[in-house]
Every structure is written in C-alpha cells, then in structure tokens.
Amino acid sequence: MRLSRFFIPILKENPKEAEIVSHRLMLRAGMIRQQSQGIYSWLPLGKKVLDKVNNIIREEQNRAGAIELSMPTLQSAELWQESGRYDAYGKEMLRIKDRQDRPMLYGPTNEEMITDIFRSSVKSYKDLPLNLYHIQLKFRDEIRPRFGTMRSREFMMKDAYSFDLTREGAEHSYNKMFTAYLRTFDRLGLRAIPMRADTGPIGGNLSHEFIILADTGESEVFCHKDFVNFDIPAENTDFDSVDGLKGIFDKWTSLYAATSEMHDESAFNAIPEGERLSARGIEVGHIFYFGTKYSEPMGAKVQGPDGKEHFVHMGSYGIGPTRLVPAIIEASHDENGIIWPESVAPFDVVVINMKAGDEACDGTCELIYAALTKAGKDVLYDDTDDRAGTKFATADLIGVPYQIIAGPRAVANGEVEVKDRKTGARETMTIEAAINRFVA
C-alpha cells in the first residue's frame, strides 16, 4: 500500500478527551474515530490490526475444535424472557420494538440464541460434545463509557458456547478453551493471567478472567509472581486429551490468583512475601461454566446412552477483540508511538523514500516494495514528499515493526538502512540483503 493513496488521518496533537495512552495513540495514528459516546468507527489502519487479532482468535478456536457460525445482532425478547434474564439484565441492555410492536434487543451476549439453535437441531448425545462460536458486534449501554474502545458501548466479541452431556465433559470443554486462550494471548504478544472470577449476570459457579498486566487496568491482580512466567501450551497440544488439558489447567491454577472482588486475603498471605505479585490489569477474556442454567428453562436436552433425556451442560467463552487492540498498545508502546507485535502489526514493514522524485531513491524503493509484496509481505510504502522528520514520526507512531530507509547517499552506494521499531537498532546493508532479510 502506498502511503500517498492510503487513508490514515494522523493527528499531530494529543486529543484532550483521551485519558489513557492507548486511546491517545489510536486517535493520533488514525485507527479509530468516535461517532458518538462510546461508539467508534474503525478506520483502515485500525481495521487491519483488528482483522489480524480476529484471525489469530479464529485459528486458535478452530484448533480447539470450536465451529464458527454467525448470529444476528438483534434478538427477540421472547428468548430472554424464556430464560428469565430479560428483566434481570439491567439498563445495559438496549431494548427496542419493531414496527409490529414486538419487543427486541440489541444483543449484549448470545446464550439464549445459541441455546435456541442447539435445542432445535441436536437431539442425541452422539452429536456431543459441540462448541459453536462467532465474532460479532455487540452493544451494552455502559453508564460511563471511557478509554476509547477499551470500554465502549458498541464492541466486538468472540463468543463460544459449549454443549456436553455431563459436567465432566463440560469441564473438559472448559479446559479446551482455557488452553486455547493461553495460546491466543501469547500469539498476540501478551501474557494473560487467568484468575478466578465472579460469574456476574452470565451465571454459573466456575469462571476465569484473563488479565493483561497494565498500570491503567481497572482490575487488581493478586497472585504468585510465577504466574507471568509459565510455559504456554504448544501448537501440537492434544485438545482431545482429558488428562493433558486438566494438567495444563491445574498447573496454571495451582498458584493463587484473584481479582480484588474475589480476593481471599488468607490465601494470598500464605504465599511467601518475596513471591507475591500485586498489580493492576486489563480484562481481555472471560470464560464460564454454568451447567444447566439455560438448558433447563429453555428445554435444551438430548437423549443419553441410557435412553433418557438429559439437560445439556453448557459453558460460554468470550474474548473482546476491540478491547484487545488497546490492551496490546498499553502493554507495548514508547514515547514515540505504538510498538506492534509482528503477529498483529498493520504492516510487516514500511519502506521510507527519503527523497521522493529522486530517480535513484524512487527506483530502489519501487524495487524493494515490489519484491516484498511479491513475497507475500504486507508493505507500506511512504512515497510522500513530506519532510524526513515527518516520515520518521509517522512510521514510529503507527508502530510498524521494521523500517527500510532509502536515502540518496546510501542508495548511491547500493545500500539502505533497516530499523527495528522495538529496539531502535539500525543496520546498514545492501539492497539485496535488505530484501532477503524479509523474504528468506
């Protein structure tokens, strides 16, 4: 993509309404634009990052055996009345009526709808276990939306819902998602701490939040310091191994961790003082096992191997992609801008033409741009006639992991400079070597 043809409305000054680093940088880098309170458009640069986050989430959900579908954003109030949550959910639910005066709602979550889909189609235990997921925009009418897309009213959520014949089966499904979440956040360049949590309006008696350590977080974290150093499950993890996944779950949960709301002070104090970790964090995922909370009132049951009907045991598993993007920024930035992990960067590399219009610089940049693009790299080519300082500031602000800098003097010697955005290290190398570094 040529920068001269890309839509990226950079802001030179910090927006006054932005309270935290991620909100400031997302606005300054032209990633998002606020449309109304707590509602944002994702502009091209932001959408590229969001899409890469979603792709990683999708790959790990598929690896764990979940199956993707798509459910509507507008839901019938009848389903929520059937489960008993319509009146109990609170003012965060946006309630509306259609032209036939039928009560509808803009879905904040999808337990009722997925249960309705399940009960209409699955009748036998032979079709279990089953895990269905989608990635969808949702709406919760937050009383105080803040921090940009970190806590917005409209947001994107990955919901997965598991169905099992027994509690034991449901716990294995829970462990699958627990393991998949550890892998997902690691691939996003984050270390997420799973912590026992309140189930809230979702219900149930087993729940974990996944927390990213950050000073701007709204959750308090109390845990053993080794929580941030445990090995992440490998790509070849056997998700069908009951004992293997239970071992992963037990390993991570054997060391005490909790949010401030669930803090067991005696358990935390039992950890040797030098091994305690007390910090703040951002919730980026939440998983629940809630048994038959929805299947019983909504009649979601299957025939078991004993010939009798059984209400299925369910769980739900959420990750907020539109919350993850600012969380990554909170965890990875400096005074010059964003530092994207390579896995979610909007571009793999930016080619900076230091003297647009110069025949040698133009030719070199076009050569590099074409070679990297042909090799499948996502390349941003700064072909503008801006000043050098502006070009460098833009490249640092938007956080592309690598910069290839082509100036007249270096190009005359058959060389370019390669800068690592994360470390700031610069290396002069031949044009061929620079290309080979990214395509080899």
How far apart the termini lie comes to: 21 Å
CATH class of the largest domain: Alpha Beta
Number of helices: 13
CATH-scheme architecture of the largest domain: 2-Layer Sandwich
For this entry, give a set of tags.
single chain; 440 residues; BirA Bifunctional Protein, domain 2; Rossmann fold; 2 domains; nine-stranded mixed sheet; 31% helix
Description:
- With 440 residues, this protein is of the alpha+beta class.
- It has 2 domains: 3-338, BirA Bifunctional Protein, domain 2 (2-Layer Sandwich), CATH 3.30.930.10; 349-439, Anticodon-binding domain (Rossmann fold).
- It is built from 13 helices and 23 strands.
- Strands 3, 7, 8, 9, 10, 11, 12, 13 and 16 form a 9-stranded mixed β-sheet that branches.
- The longest helix has 21 residues, at 167-187.
Quick structural overview:
This protein is an alpha+beta fold. Helices cover 31% and strands 28% of the residues.
